[in-house]
Structures are given as C-alpha cells and as structure tokens.
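Continuing from the previous page...

OK, I double-checked the sequence for Dyp-type peroxidase against my notes and this is the correct one:
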Amino acid sequence: MAREQLGVCAEANLHGDFLLLNAIDGQEVFLRQQLAQIPALVSQLADHFSEAMLTGVVAIGASYWDTLYPEARPAGLLPFPVLESSELLMPASAFDLLLQIRSDRQDVNYLVAQQLYQLLAPAVELVEQMRGFRYLDGRDLTGFIDAPEAVRGRKRRELALLTTAQEPQFAAGSYLHLQRFRHDLKRWQLLPVSAQQAIIGRNKSDGQWLPLVQLEADCHSLCFFQDKNRNQPLPLLTQNMPFADLKQQGLLWLSYSSDSTAFETFIRQRLGVGELQADGYDRLLDYCQADLGAAFFAPSVSFLEQYERR
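Thanks. Re-ran it with the corrected sequence; updated structure tokens here:
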C-alpha cells in the first residue's frame, strides 16, 4: 500500500517555509536518490522535535517531471494554467522542485530547511525561500478566517490523495498548486466591514455565510464551489499561510487535490471566465495581486523510494 507524504494532509501549523528550487542539468540520478531520503529525514527530525509537529513535502514541477522521472507521469499533471480575463492576469512560473516545511517552531523550520537544502545543494539552486505564519486564530491578513469550512481527519485524505482506482502508480500522491498574492491592505482597511463582508461573502467575526439575500454572485467564497447554491464544493485541500513584513503583505496559497482539474476550475471562477461566473470576477482580486503561480505533483513516499535507483 502506497504511503503518502505526511505533510500533504497535515493540520495547520504556526510556521511554514517554502523553498523553490531549480535543478542543475545532468543531476537526475543524484536527485532521485536524494529526494527518496527526504521523507525519512523529516520523520527522524519530527521525532527528535516531537513538540514542534513537524511535517514536510517534496513536490516536482510539471515542466521538470519528465526529466526526473521519464518512465511515468501523472495523467493530470499540466503546467500552471495561463488564463486571462479582460481585466486580470494570473501569472505562471516554472520551478523544478518545491520543499514545504511546516511546524510550530520557526527554529526547527530553519534547521530542517538547512539540512534539506544541504542534501540537495550540489544539484540544485535556490530560487526563492518564502516564509508564512499563522495569523491570530487562523485568519488571512484581510482579517477573515481562512477556509472556515476546512475538512478534518480522513476527509482531508479523500480530498487530497489519489487512490489506486484513479492512478495506481501514483496512489497517495497529490496535485499541488502554489500561488503568491500581495495584498493592498491600505485600500482594504479603508473599506467598512460591511463592504469587506460583501466581497468575501461571510461574516468577518465568525466566518459564517452571509444571508442569501445579501450574497453577491461575484463574492470570493463562491469561487470554491461548482454551483451557486453551495452544494458542490471544489475538491481542494488548502494550506494557505500569510506572509508579511512592514513593507509588503500577502498570502501564500497552496492547494492539494486528487482531482487534477479542480484548481483550474477554481482559478476560472476567480477570473470570471468559468461557466458559473458570468456575473464577473472575484472582487477580492481588486485588493490582491498574484505575482507567482506554479504547478507540482507531490508523489507518495513509495514512489520516491521505488524510483530511487533508476
């Protein structure tokens, strides 16, 4: 039975580090061997720092997959979707590898990031390191609860992990999409709470839906559903984390899914080019701008170990 990477379905942590890496040409054999060691190394460090609730994920970029694992490719692994509306653009980027490290201790994150990078360093270059943190009681920097209806326990596995029936070779793997949004908090904070709630579609205090008579068709929260009646939520397991300093603030948006099409449906809804978004684009995008977007696949531990020596 395939074993998933434990960080895919892990519950929220206080701190997150995200390393975007590009591989040096000709290092595929070395990288396959090193990547296969990462889950065991993270597990050992998680045992050592047991109070930190450490988890990690290694994911391979859509454009690099065939170079690293030419013998097999997840059926739905595609580059980040390039979609344009008349007013908005979601930029697409290509990175070879993503390392996600989360725990309740920033010092542990640093130590793990250092060790994982050293493990891969002869064969990769670090393009960017991003840090996220838990804000208040799980809120975005807009002040609203992030994913107030997020599923728990086994339901997370059902959303995120491929089954043997779907793709036998990639069971317990997950399609991963990453975006980085920069918020214009000065403009956002000038809005009255009632206007903010109309844009999000929820109460700011508790995350509950606004009454149907007040719900705008282009509100942010409806983008997560396949129908306007909120009966069919998109199968996305999000692990978002805010990032901030005194100059810039925003959100690192990560979603895992067993459905390779779910993220594109979501982004179409946001841009107003989806079938259900004839009323317009997600109005939250007037106050935040994506500057990075990339597609990855997080294979199972079993897959990494199986291809270690090939």
